[in-house]
Design a protein that fits this description.
Layout lengths: L10 E2 L13 H35 L3 H29 L1 H20 L4 H29 L5 H26 L6 H4 L1 H15 L14 H24 L3 H23 L13 H31 L4 H6 L2 H21 L2 H19 L7 H29 L6 H26 L10 H27 L4 E2 L49
Helix pairs in contact: 1-2, 1-4, 1-5, 1-7, 2-3, 2-4, 2-8, 2-15, 3-4, 3-7, 4-15, 5-12, 5-14, 8-9, 8-15, 10-15, 10-16, 12-14, 13-14, 13-16
């Protein structure tokens, strides 16, 4: 898409008008349920596992380090392979790779459920992350290539709301399952996966990039995984062990691998991630906005939960429930808010949503000892929810529309990685920025001082997201009459009408750390 930087009128995004599944039909609703259920299953697993860690530690006689890696092993493999998962979907078939991811994730869940030792559990969690990396980019890619263009923004908004619910019910479901056995925390994925597979098989035709040719970019895949994996390891470990030899080595390795990856992709005849993606100003700008917004969101949720528990004396469950209004607002209104971008262009919702969210975060920065939920916490959480509900669907649709249709999975993986890195970077860097050392976590006064500094920075990051949005060229989510190129046409399945693969691509533009309740989901967490 060649931008017209001199145009003063909203530029129409390239969304060809062709047939597709309508959201209001039974098939459309079933397809949306299938994608939301698969993504929600992965997201639910992370929040449930966090609740189960103390029980797992007792029953498997696991050390604190082993429990940490029960969580981190999943995050590490998911982050390292997310780009590869998106590329494989584009190349081999988005439905095929999504189904493979769901099945892989489920088999790994069974291995987790029967793990006799902490070491086996950690290995199985790493395998779960591989499954998550395969299914994560595919969920929204399937919506992109199957839903009718008129319904895609709303479908993405509803998807965000539905999967966000998983983050809220995770601790509640986990507490209930622990009444029986911690192994049910993982075994619950089996029936959920069975429903997901059935729904996808009967509702979604296959689609792929028919223009993809030549040998697969193995070197690019290895270098990309090394860069993402090493950086994720460093960001996870740095808050606990600081500038250790291993952490510094991983940080240096991540930079070296990233430089080599960029050189490889620039020179490769068939790159895994074509760097031409970033030549579109909107794609680059919206990913920059994603970095700022999700660093801010991840940071505020991380510190808010700490503040509510350690300074105000709330239980972990009470602190988690405090953010439920955010998710309820997204569940109820995300689908409708997606229509704003089609009517007014993407810039107003992006700017307004970011600023409303920033105001909510400023209110939350004032929360301290002795404050009540209704008077002091609820207003900020509600404004944050309104901001997210306005922002997230438009952010998602904008990233989708700014990437070529045949690179839907790759572009989704890129945005997913950006959002995930933003969350990890915020959680790693903000405590140091706020002057919060390990001992200060136990001192309510020191924690409150650091909390206010860190959350103030988070508000600034959301405001920076609004500034980034204002630099984007104005666009309107409407469809021209041009037809989609043949390369993006999905293969018809027996008994299904052909459905066009369109030029809106799904991002993972709504991710945040999996442990942060009430946030839009980090796909595949």
């Amino acid at each position: 898409m060649s931008p017209d930087s001199h145009s003063r009128t909203p530029r129409v995004l390239s969304l060809p008008m062709t047939d597709g599944v309508r959201l209001a039909t039974p098939r459309g609703r079933a397809l949306l349920a299938a994608t939301a259920l698969g993504s929600g299953m992965a997201f639910l697993d992370s929040t449930v596992v966090n609740v189960a860690l103390p029980t797992i530690g007792r029953e498997l006689d696991a050390s604190l380090a082993a429990l940490q890696w029960t969580v981190n092993a999943y995050t590490l493999t998911l982050a390292a392979l997310i780009l590869l998962g998106g590329s494989l979907g584009d190349r081999l078939g988005r439905r095929r790779i999504y189904l493979l991811g769901v099945v892989w994730f489920t088999v790994a869940s069974v291995l987790c459920a029967v793990a006799p030792t902490a070491e086996v559990l950690i290995a199985a969690r790493a395998l779960q992350g591989i499954g998550g990396a395969l299914l994560t980019p595919g969920a929204l890619a399937i919506l992109q290539t199957t839903m009718h263009p008129d319904d895609r923004p709303r479908a993405i908004g509803v998807w965000a709301g539905l999967t966000g619910v998983a983050g809220v019910i995770g601790p509640l479901l986990g507490g209930w399952l622990l009444e029986f056995d911690w192994r049910w925390v993982f075994a619950i994925n089996v029936p959920l996966a069975a429903v997901t597979v059935w729904l996808i098989v009967v509702t979604a035709p296959e689609s792929r990039d028919e223009e993809a040719g030549g040998r697969f970019d193995v070197a690019g895949a290895v270098l990309g995984a090394a860069a993402l994996g090493a950086s994720t390891y460093a960001l996870i470990s740095w808050p606990d062990s600081g500038a250790s030899v291993l952490n510094v080595t991983m940080a240096v390795l991540s930079v070296a691998a990233a430089v080599a990856f960029l050189h490889r992709e620039r020179a490769a005849e068939h790159p895994m991630v074509p760097l031409s993606l970033f030549s579109d100003r909107t794609f680059s700008g919206i990913n920059l906005m994603t970095l700022a917004v999700y660093a801010g969101l991840s940071g505020v949720m991380f510190f808010l939960v700490l503040q509510l528990q350690l300074s105000l004396g709330w239980t972990p469950l009470e602190a988690g429930i405090a953010t439920i209004p955010t998710t309820i607002l997204m569940l109820l209104f995300s689908g409708r808010s997606a229509d704003l971008a089609k009517r007014f262009g993407v810039r107003p919702p992006l700017v307004t949503g970011s600023l409303i969210g920033a105001v909510g975060v400023v209110l939350l920065a004032a929360v301290g000892d002795g404050d009540s939920y209704l008077v002091d916490v609820l207003p900020g959480v509600t404004l944050l929810g309104i901001g997210l509900t306005t922002l997230v669907p438009t952010l998602t649709a904008t990233v989708m529309a700014s990437a070529p249709q045949h690179l839907a999975g790759v572009a989704s993986g890129v945005n997913n990685g950006v959002a995930r890195a933003a969350g990890l970077l915020a959680v790693a860097a903000l405590p140091a920025i706020a002057g919060l050392s390990g001992a200060a976590y136990e001192d309510p006064e020191l924690l409150t001082d650091a909390y206010r500094i860190a959350v103030g920075v988070c508000a600034g990051l959301l405001a920076a997201g609004a500034v980034a949005a204002m630099t984007l060229r104005p666009r309107v989510l409407t469809e021209p009459t041009a037809t989609a190129p043949a390369a993006a046409q999905p293969e018809p399945e027996p008994g299904l009408a052909p459905v066009s693969a369109q030029a809106i691509r799904p991002p993972a533009a709504v991710p945040a750390p999996c442990s942060a309740p009430g946030l839009p989901p980090a796909h595949g967490c």
